[in-house]
Amino acid sequence: MLKMKTPILVYLLLLSVLPREFSAAIVEDHKHFQQFKLVYNKHYATDTEERRRESIFLKHSAFIEEHNQNYTKGLTSFELGINEYADWSEEEFMSFMSGSDEIHDIRNVMKQGATFIPPANVKLPDAVDWRELGAVTGVKKQGRCGSCWAFAATGALEGQHFRKTSKLISLSEQNLVDCTLTYGNKGCNGGIKERGFLYVRDNGGINSEVTYPYRAQQDAECLFDASAIAATSKGFVRIQPEDEYALLAAVATVGPIAVKMNMKCLRKQFYRQGVFNDQLCEERRPNHALLLVGYGRNNVTNEDYWILKNSWGVSWGMDGYITVPRNVNFGGIALGPSYPLV
Ligand SMILES: *[C@@H]1O[C@H](CO)[C@@H](O)[C@H](O)[C@H]1NC(C)=O
Ligand SMILES: *[C@@H]1O[C@H](CO)[C@@H](O)[C@H](O)[C@H]1NC(C)=O
């Protein structure tokens, strides 16, 4: 009991010695953190841990506030916001990215894909959003597990399965996390989405989310249930790297496309809304897989953008989505797109 009260005592002590506005700010900050804990149902094992988390939270919220003042002044194109990751340090957050291509021997995997040939004699629409066409399931959450590659793979397969059968079925990331180790994937320590497509092909299918639920950890064994196949794949198609017209044609005419992109930047951890146009955050080395679900153009700013579904839950971004600039190979988005054949 006494231990739990220590922070309050410390605050009271501080209040008695600090100038008035300053102490009011500390109380406000502390209230803000208490609210955050309540909203996101946060519990910490020890007082020390709680104080560490509060200090990370306060540092991040000051940064977000400063950025948003710039946003209000029109100095930046996107807004940030507190989300459930506000008490995670930047390093901690980045450790759940899937890692670099070198680790994963990406060349040998990509060689196994067919080549996308953009359709000839068609005019692509100015805007496409596969969410409106029913090809995209709800936003999911990878949690403390570097399994983004599995979410991008299921997302693209859900889309192609929908286009083939008119049925939208949420597919199992855990199936891919547990069962693609022999393909070279590393479960919660990263992987390649295309190995997911190859596994589904060789395995004769994948289970649904309901049959094989997500656990945000790597199970000891593969628990695939052959009597409950929800979707199948016949391999994958890769889109010519660094060709954003081909990528546009693919997402316009085929469906949601699995992509990878660089997400290593504090502003990306707290992205809330707007087109993420930030030179300071530009790095073209992809370290995170996402699902490209469409594109459009802001008719006020004339900005072309991509629409991406992320796997960080709905507290992040625009209910789990982000828009980023198009035609600049943003974050290396055009380096490794693919979709499964069904
Ligand atoms: C806000 O804008 C100023 C001026 O461009 C810049 O120096 C500062 O770093 C920006 N703050 C944030 C948090 O991005
Ligand atoms: C611009 O965009 C808005 C909102 O998306 C839309 O309502 C409006 O019709 C568009 N205007 C033009 C000229 O396309």
Automatic annotation (TrEMBL):
Keywords: Disulfide bond, Hydrolase, Protease, Signal, Thiol protease, Zymogen
InterPro entries: Papain-like_cys_pep_sf (IPR038765), Pept_asp_AS (IPR025661), Pept_cys_AS (IPR000169), Peptidase_C1A (IPR013128), Peptidase_C1A_C (IPR000668), Peptidase_C1A_papain-like (IPR039417), Prot_inhib_I29 (IPR013201)
Domain Peptidase C1A papain C-terminal: 124-341
Pfam families reported in the protein's UniProt record: Inhibitor_I29, Peptidase_C1
GO BP terms: proteolysis
Catalytic activity: Specificity close to that of papain. As compared to cathepsin B, cathepsin L exhibits higher activity toward protein substrates, but has little activity on Z-Arg-Arg-NHMec, and no peptidyl-dipeptidase activity
Any one GO molecular-function label of the UniProt entry: cysteine-type endopeptidase activity
Enzyme Commission (EC) number: 3.4.22.15
Signal peptide: 1-24
Enzyme class: hydrolase
Record's keyword annotation contains Isomerase: no
PROSITE patterns the UniProt entry points to: THIOL_PROTEASE_ASN (PS00640), THIOL_PROTEASE_CYS (PS00139)
Record bears the keyword Hydrolase: yes
Domain named Cathepsin propeptide inhibitor: residues: 33-93
Similarity section: Belongs to the peptidase C1 family.
Oligomer and partners: Dimer of a heavy and a light chain linked by disulfide bonds.
Name of the protein described by the UniProt record: cathepsin L
Organism of origin: Ceratitis capitata
